[in-house]
Write a structure and sequence with these properties.
The chain is α+β, with helices and mostly antiparallel strands. Helix content is 34%, strand content 12%. Strands 1-2 form a two-stranded parallel sheet.
């Protein structure tokens, strides 16, 4: 069985999940791929819960 997606996002940390969510809200079919549970490994999983709360870039603020 094959499932077609328009975009594959590799990495389900905070950045990959945010990109996938934005694409989905724009109507794009997205496959979010990670080697573990979303947000559990890598930089997002070991961040200690710290997430930047401010950025002067309007595009990054919209993605947040």
């Amino acid at each position: 069985m094959f499932i077609d997606y328009e975009i594959a996002v590799v990495g389900a940390g905070i950045t990959g999940a945010s990109i996938a969510a934005k694409l989905c809200s724009a109507g794009v079919s997205v496959a979010l791929i990670d080697k573990g549970a979303a947000g559990s490994l890598g930089a997002s999983g070991y961040s200690g819960g710290l997430v930047r709360l401010y950025d002067s870039d309007p595009l990054l603020m919209e993605l947040a």
